[in-house]
């Protein structure tokens, strides 16, 4: 039987690449097949350690494999995991993988395995190999997330579309906290697929490559540049004064007016489209009966330095066994005002609390490894705390 499914849009023709940043357990050839079925260009197939079980490790040396037409590619990477500090998607890259992949005891590592690394060192190792260093299923596990944001170790945050709360949950709110303290991080989407219950790309990343050829390196570069959106269905674009996510617009002293346009289309009716500025809804349009296409065009007063992003959602759903909401969120466009910096005191206090929490766990509860490794891990958090401390004082925030 041959089923032909009509497209309502073809973003690939317009220079976009679509990817799942987080897939487990499939064989690479099955991943190509499933990727083709779901219209995905790139599947990041992640080897991982689950206690005594190692998966997809044998696929790492084989490098990427692709469909005959070259339009669907599977790149092996690793998910490096620690149960308190966090999980990372270390994507693509060359040479030796970032091994070992788990640290500091169950469920991720061996029983009794001590703490021998920070996530920051794993992120550095990934970047050194030319890979894309992504904080997995942000923000959980959470302890080192704050330090890595402050130290600029992560290239992107992978965010999931939880059904019940939509955007009103720590996945988006903690990302907003980072952006509102001046830490510029694009968003990516992945599934963490671990079985047939989840289609590859049910939550995915669109990244704009323009005329560049489709390769892992060009995709990773496009994500770093920041013209991305994460989506469980809607196709969402944003322009601010003609600029796209990842771009920086420089305003004069006292800010200015910015013309913002966002457009969403989806196979499921959408009910709301919003423009978010510095974490607050700056403009929105609601369609109570739902529509396959929503648009919003606004002149926004921007009083000072800011970030602006677009988001949209449907009240229908959920989709998948993991109860994904049908939604999409773009990465931000950044608005600079010379001599000023976007800064939120409560968000900075939140990040500081996270860093101190990670230190407390390392000093009191972690199973220590050798003194040298422990000193190195503690130094990571000390440095993050000092940098954030300086930023807080520069903004007149004694704490
Ligand atoms: Zn994970
Ligand atoms: Zn995973």
List the helices and strands and how they pair.
Elements: E1 16-23, H1 28-37, E2 42-50, E3 53-55, E4 65-66, E5 73-82, E6 86-91, H2 119-128, E7 132-135, H3 145-150, E8 156-158, H4 170-179, E9 187-188, E10 204-208, H5 216-225, E11 228-231, E12 235-240, E13 248-250, E14 256-277, E15 280-302, E16 306-313, E17 327-330, E18 333-336, H6 345-364, H7 371-394
Parallel strand pairs: 1-2, 2-5, 7-8, 8-9, 13-18
Antiparallel strand pairs: 1-10, 2-3, 4-5, 5-6, 6-7, 10-11, 11-17, 12-14, 14-15, 14-16, 16-17, 16-18
Helix pairs in contact: 4-6, 6-7
Bound molecules: zinc ion (ZN) (2 copies).
One zinc ion (ZN) is lined by residues 22, 24, 79, 192.
Q: In brief, what are we looking at here?
A:
This protein has a single domain, classed as TIM Barrel (Alpha-Beta Barrel). Helices cover 23% and strands 32% of the residues. The chain is built from 7 helices and 18 strands.
- H/E series: EHEEEEEHEHEHEEHEEEEEEEEHH
CATH topology: TIM Barrel
Judging by the overall fold, what is the CATH architecture? Answer: Alpha-Beta Barrel
Helix content: 10-25%
Query: Could you give the count of β-strands?
Result: 18
């Amino acid at each position: 039987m041959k089923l032909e499914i009509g497209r309502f849009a073809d973003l690939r023709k317009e220079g976009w690449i679509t990817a799942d940043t987080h897939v487990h357990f499939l064989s690479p050839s099955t991943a190509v097949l499933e990727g083709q079925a779901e219209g995905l260009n790139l599947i990041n197939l992640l080897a991982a350690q689950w206690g005594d079980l190692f998966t997809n490790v044998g696929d790492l040396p084989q490098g990427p494999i692709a469909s005959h037409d070259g339009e669907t590619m599977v790149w092996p990477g690793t998910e490096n995991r620690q149960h308190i500090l966090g999980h990372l998607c270390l994507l693509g890259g060359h040479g030796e993988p970032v091994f070992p992949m788990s640290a500091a005891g169950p469920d991720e590592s061996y029983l009794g395995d001590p703490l021998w690394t920070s996530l920051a060192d794993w992120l550095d190792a990934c970047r050194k190999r030319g890979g894309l260093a992504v904080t997995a299923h942000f923000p959980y596990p959470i302890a080192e997330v704050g330090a890595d944001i402050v130290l600029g170790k992560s290239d992107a945050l992978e965010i999931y579309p939880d059904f019940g709360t939509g955007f009103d949950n720590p996945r988006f709110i903690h990302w907003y906290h980072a952006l509102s303290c001046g830490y510029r991080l694009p968003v990516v989407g992945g599934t963490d697929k671990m079985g047939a219950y989840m289609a590859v790309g049910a939550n995915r990343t669109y990244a704009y490559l323009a005329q560049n050829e489709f390769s892992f390196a060009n995709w990773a570069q496009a994500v770093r540049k920041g013209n991305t959106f994460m989506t469980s269905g809607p196709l969402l674009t944003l322009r601010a004064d003609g600029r796209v996510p990842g771009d920086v617009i420089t305003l004069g002293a006292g800010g200015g007016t910015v013309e913002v346009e966002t457009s969403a289309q989806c196979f499921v009716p959408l009910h709301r489209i919003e423009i978010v500025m510095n974490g607050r809804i700056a403009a929105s349009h609601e369609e109570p009966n739902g529509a396959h296409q929503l648009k919003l065009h606004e002149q926004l007063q921007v009083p000072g330095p800011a970030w602006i992003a677009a988001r949209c959602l449907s009240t229908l759903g959920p989709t998948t066994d993991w109860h994904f909401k049908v939604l999409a969120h773009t990465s931000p466009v950044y608005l600079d005002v010379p001599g000023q910096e976007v800064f939120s005191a409560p968000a900075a206090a939140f990040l500081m609390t996270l860093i101190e929490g990670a230190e407390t766990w390392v000093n009191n509860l972690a199973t220590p490894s050798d003194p040298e490794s422990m000193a190195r891990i503690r130094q990571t958090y000390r440095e993050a705390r000092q940098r954030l401390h300086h930023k807080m004082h520069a903004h007149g925030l004694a704490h």
